[in-house]
UniProtKB/TrEMBL annotation, chain A:
This is glutathione transferase. It comes from Paramecium primaurelia. It catalyses: RX + glutathione = an S-substituted glutathione + a halide anion + H(+). Conjugation of reduced glutathione to a wide number of exogenous and endogenous hydrophobic electrophiles. Residues 3-86 form the GST N-terminal domain. GO terms for biological process: glutathione metabolic process. Homodimer. Residues 91-212 form the GST C-terminal domain. GO terms for molecular function: glutathione transferase activity. Belongs to the GST superfamily. Mu family. Belongs to the GST superfamily. Pi family. Keywords: Transferase.
Automatic annotation (TrEMBL), chain B:
GO terms for molecular function: glutathione transferase activity. The keyword Transferase applies. It comes from Paramecium primaurelia. Its EC number is 2.5.1.18. Pfam families: GST_C_3 (PF14497), GST_N (PF02798). This is glutathione transferase. Keywords: Transferase. It is an enzyme of class 2 (transferase).
Amino acid sequence: MGDKVVLGYWAIRGLAQPLRFYLEYLGLPYEEKRYYKPEEWFADVTSAPLNQHVLVNLPYIKDGDELVFESQALYVYLAYRANKPELLGQNPKEQVTLASVRGVLQDLFKSLITLFTIPEDQFEAKKDNFFNQEVLWIAEKLSKFLENQKWAVGDNLTYIDFQLFEAEEILRNYKPEVFTTLVGLKKHNENFANLPAIKAYQVSDKMIARPFYPPGMYRWG
Amino acid sequence: MENKVVLGYWAIRGLAQPIRFFLEYIELPYEDKRYTDPQEWFGKDDQTFNSQFTNLPYLKDGDHTVFESDAIYYYLAHKVNKPELLGKDAKQQTMVATIRGVVGDFRATFFQWVYGSKETAEAKKEAMLQETGEFFRVFNTTLERSTWLTGDTITYVDFLVWEYVDEFLVLAPEVITSKPKLVEFHNRISEFPQIKKYLENPNYIKRPFNWDLQAVFY
């Protein structure tokens, strides 16, 4: 057999980028359905099989007849699909730590979105203050947490490391100088980028380097 | 010898209420520590933890403290040896993460209104009810297809959704009463003996759901 799973998302980094890295790392044969225009997504969402599901959204994984939605659920689904459940946390301690890091990381992503959706006429005036007061302190918490360990839950890689890397890439591209002080994030970022599957993917022609966010809707991306 | 776990949070329902329900459901003895004054927490208790993630809610178990509400359910389920409450197999664990994601999207929509401008709250209420109504429709349809939100056995995300169903039964009852499976789901959990007892306990917080100083609805 060996049907490929299909990852569906916009043709940007967004929520799917960590999932692309994840699929590469898992070594699962996969295809991408990249939506370049809202009309393309609307066409799919209003026809079978998507129109028969209740929770339809982007990103999704299509695996034969199976359809999975909600980005966090895709990491769970794919770990089992690739027979690598250790990426979900190998024991209760790792699972609890993973959930804690995920909670803090989600606050960081939320803050970044708020930053980049400051109204256009106020962005230049407000961006530095907002970054320093609403983004940096969360990034600092994560950075200090990571200073004394290799991966988010300790010695073992889990799916949350993939999402952490994306947050680091946003920070590194938006404000490169933060890595001078956020040494924990810098270290994690370098370790992750050096994973063979990640290193190879980043120089491949499948790699989307930019934009991080939908162009035209966000102040930066 | 005091070996109860301690749940710390503000004296509101908020993020802690489903955790309180979960603790009652698993029948784990606990202390429900409520911070009524921010100065009890900020600069005082929050300095006593040795963690980068110090925040409310927390779950203190002897020398160990867990932060982040979602992580607390994972900790508690393993503590009482009931990992099935996190999803008993790959399929249900995937569904737990799916529902949790949808709850996150619901919260983003709802709390933008709850903690938004008081001046425009009334004007924006109908649009908010439309959007949140969509989420409740999704939960209702899901319950038409399975006994619980993630399958045939209960998981912690059922308690997350119960809390918002309960809140909307006060805020905008018709959003819920128009969805029979949601009503039945709400009653089903309320009728668990340990939950029924908890609902009648004078310590049970009926209101406020949210921060009464800042929220447009609490």
